[in-house]
Structures are given as C-alpha cells and as structure tokens.
UniProtKB/TrEMBL annotation:
Swiss-Prot/TrEMBL catalytic activity: aldehydo-D-ribose 5-phosphate = D-ribulose 5-phosphate
GO cellular component: cytoplasm
Name of the protein in its database record: Ribose-5-phosphate isomerase
One Pfam family linked to the record: Rib_5-P_isom_A
Pathway it works in: Carbohydrate degradation; pentose phosphate pathway; D-ribose 5-phosphate from D-ribulose 5-phosphate (non-oxidative stage): step 1/1
Length: 298
C-alpha cells in the first residue's frame, strides 16, 4: 500500500469520516505540486538526496491525516497556514465535498494561502471578521519534543501566529525532516524574526549582543534588497546556541521585549498536535500531552 492509501481516520472509529481514495481528489491545489527528482532543502541549503516524490508523499500524508482528524463537519471557521505542505491540506478539505465546504469560511495566514483558498473556490474570510477560529492547520520548519516550533521560513510568522492564537485547535503538518528533539537541530538558518524596517539595524545589534552574533537580514533572491513580508516588514534570521534553543519560551519572551521586533518565529505552547509524514508511509503524531502516536501503513 502506498503512503497515499493510508486511511488515518480508521484509527479514530468514533469519527464517521468517509474514506476518499486519492483518485477522487482533483483540485487546483494539487496542480501546484511538481514532480522534480530532487528537492532543495531549505534547512541545510543543500540538495536533498531523497527523491521529491517521497518528500511530497510524506507532506501529503501528514496533511491528509491531520485534516481527517481535526477538520470535522462541525468546524466552520478554518485557518489555512503557509508553506509547501499546506496545498495538501486544501486538497483534502476539498475532498470533503462541496456540501460541507459551502457553510465554511477559510482564513489565510498570508498571500500564498489566500491564493490557495481563492483558487480552490472556497469562501475567503479575514481574521478581523472572525477572531475565533475552530481550527487552523499550518506548516512548520522544525518541531521539538514539546511541540514548540520554528516557523517563518517563508516569512509568514506574524499572520501565522495570530491565527494560531485565534484557533481553538492549532495543528502543524510537515514531512519527517521537521521532526526533532531540540529546535535548531535541523533548521540551521536561525529564528525568523519580523522587524519594522526602520528599526532593523538596531535590532540586529541587540541580537548580536544577546547570543546571536551571526543574525542577519534576510535578502531576497530575485530582487535587490531584503525580503519584505506580507505586512511590509523585514525579516532577520537569528541563530542561537543549543542551550538557548532548549528553552524556546524563555528566548521568545526575551526577544519579544526588543523594540522594533514585531513577531518572532518561535511558537510555544500553542499546538494541540504535530503530524509528520515519514518516508515509509507511516505518520508520527506528537500530541501536546506528550503522547507520540505512530500510524503505520497497515
Ligand atoms: O513562513 C512560512 C511558514 O512558517 C511555513 O509554514 C514554514 O516555513 C514551513 O514551510 P514548508 O512547509 O514550505 O517547509
């Protein structure tokens, strides 16, 4: 059985979800998934030797399992996060059918997820209209053993955190490369920090003095100058030593007190669960009570 044929909801018999075979899934969201033989690994900056098919299937499996477990017919206000795993979230939501989706409103965490919602012809809403969400599913750059995470590899952390805090249930989805014990183990670029543009130089100096000597402004790839977020701000990537990364909530508090920082890509004590698709077609679910569940492919 291939990873895409796993029926995760079967493990939760109390939920009466109907299995939708992959052949029934036809969405615009799926069109954005390309089939390269290799994939660029943002965490190491190198090319991964793992075929992209396996990584994409791992993402899809995590996303589908999370949707099956957490987006129930009663859920009406739904947050859609950012990143490369999220198209599979939308794909699986679409597979729940037009009838159930008709009564739902979808809130994006940025331009990318807004486009996904619009292209999927789902109803778009705004967090200012719907400050309480039933559930938000989002990607992650790295997740530790206590469900703390680094987010913001795509510079979306501010809106993502607003939606994470607004959601009654916040869940992360990712492939196996994001699952680690301590933050900073796999994700080496540092913590993405959104800053007000005019304050960036001062914030950098401060970061250098409190344990991140290599903190730097994130530069754009196909544009001269810095990355500009959906909110018109800059992003600083700030690597910290392992000792500081072992206490992410403490570090987060310290960073939030620096004037000019708008939001920090450390998400602490927010998640209900994190889903990781594995290379062998299984899914690892880390729950906020410390339980780790392994769902095998039969
Ligand atoms: O800013 C971007 C978000 O935090 C993403 O959720 C995160 O970077 C993971 O993205 P991807 O799934 O593409 O690795």
């Amino acid at each position: 059985m291939s990873p895409t044929h796993v029926r995760p909801f079967a493990l939760i018999p109390s939920r009466s979800l109907i299995y939708l075979p992959p052949s029934t899934i036809k969405s615009r969201a799926s069109l954005s998934v390309r089939n390269h033989s290799k994939v660029h690994c943002r965490s190491s900056g190198r090319m991964s030797a793992v075929p992209v098919d396996i990584i994409e299937k791992s993402k899809q499996l995590a996303a589908w399992t999370a949707v099956d477990n957490h987006i129930l017919p009663a859920d009406k206000i739904i947050g859609i996060g950012s990143g490369s795993t999220v198209p599979y979230v939308v794909e699986r939501i679409l597979a729940q059918g037009a009838e159930v989706n008709k009564g739902r409103v979808f809130i994006p965490t940025g331009f990318q997820s807004r486009q996904l919602i619009v292209e999927a012809q789902l109803t778009l809403g705004d967090v200012s209209q719907y400050p309480v969400l039933d559930v938000t599913i989002d990607g992650a750059d790295e997740v530790d053993h206590e469900l703390n995470s680094i987010k913001g590899g795509g510079a979306c952390q501010l809106q993502e955190k607003v939606l994470a805090e607004a959601a009654k249930t916040w869940v992360m989805v990712a492939d196996y490369r994001k699952n680690s014990e301590t933050l900073g183990t796999n994700w080496k670029q540092g913590i993405p920090i959104e800053v007000v543009p005019f304050a960036y130089a001062g914030v950098l100096r401060k970061l250098h003095s409190i344990g991140s000597p290599t903190a730097h402004l994130r530069m754009a790839k196909m544009k001269a100058g810095p990355v500009v977020t959906d909110n018109g701000n800059f992003v600083i990537d700030a690597p910290f030593a392992v000792e500081q990364m072992k206490e992410p909530a403490k570090l987060l508090t310290q960073l939030k007190l620096i004037t000019g920082i708008v939001e920090v890509g450390l998400f602490c004590n927010l998640a209900k669960a994190a889903y990781f698709g594995n290379q062998d077609g299984s899914v690892t679910i880390k729950w906020n009570n410390g339980r780790v569940e392994q769902i095998s492919k039969e």
